[in-house]
Sequence to fold (147 residues):
Amino acid sequence: MRYVGIDYGLSRTGLAISDPDEKMAFPLATVYFSDFKTRSEMLDHLAQVIIAAEGAALVIGYPKPLTGPDTLICRQVLNVTKRLWRRLQLPCYLMNEALSSFEALADLKACGVKTRLRKKVLDQQAAVRILESFLNCQNRPCPLALP
Fold:
């Protein structure tokens, strides 16, 4: 089965895809909200990218705070997850995305990726981190129970 990792952001969303053996994650795409008139159009495009990649389940990065209640971005991620589920009817998993962008940026710097190119692939690399965390998890979480 191929999992699609998603690093959702308000301006950019990074996507990653697993190999069919669920052992490795690879960058897939970066989707820019500014390329679309509405969030609904962007979500339609995301769904089409996921279908074209033959994704069978979604692993969405969830920015759970270390302490305190959920934040506005947490609620937005849950909303986007529900809206994608309605379009795709695929199992959806939430995965803690703590430090995924920070680690992805450190990796890109270490690899010598030029500053102007980092933004184009940073969210894809963060999605790879989120998906790798899920694939390497001994006790994978259960999929969300969505309506």
Summary: The longest strand covers residues 25-32.
